[in-house]
Amino acid sequence: MAVNHRIKLQYSAMFFALLGYILICVSTFVPLWKNLNLDLNEMEIWNSGLWQTCVVQEEGGMQCKDFDSFLALPFTLQMARILMFLSDGFGIVGLIISTMCLECLSIGENKTKKKLALLGGTLLLISGIIAVVPVSWIAYDTVQEFWDQTIPDIVPRWEFGEAMFMCWFGSFFLILGGSFLFCAMPSNNNPPNVKCLGKNIPVSLYGPPPVQRRYPDLII
User: Fold this and answer.
1) Three-class DSSP category at 158
2) Which one of 14, 104, 127, 212 has the fewest CB atoms closer than 10 angstroms to its CB?
3) What is this structure's pTM?
4) Span of 75-84, 91-100, 123-132, 192-201 with lowest mean pLDDT
5) Domain topology for 2-32+74-191
């Protein structure tokens, strides 16, 4: 039942890869990378992302302001934008290539699907690893600023936002999906004619059915 096991691994790989890619894309654009709570004014909460800064007020709703220029941003934010875009690009290409190597699709031979699975899994791993870099970098800077002794205690400190955890989880799921895809690479000996949602296993996996003689005692 090696084919059934491989199909389950492929479905798991696609599920985790798709989930991770969605989390990575959402975290790229939402302004929730860092949060700032003002003790002097508890009715305002400041949120900052890669593209804009927003302030949430209980009475006035949420107001956002985009960053003016890419060149005027800190080097950390510049690299974070570039790396997140690279992660999104590698992720979508890896998902497309990984889909073509599924056992249920009649695209090429098993040797071709094995190469596609290797390429798709590699791209997913690269996407997950790239996404870890900017979020960990910004997290390190946030921790350094939070515990900076030169800043007076009365000054508010930035803290981790929800998007940073989304990016971490998305990176983990992408790496997990790529690893599952490596484990589910098709063999060169098994035929790729398994149905996606069916339960039928090709007869060729077990060899031709045995021929039964209707009259075993009859000698010709």
Assistant:
1) coil
2) 212
3) 0.79
4) 192-201
5) Butyryl-CoA Dehydrogenase, subunit A; domain 3 (1.20.140)
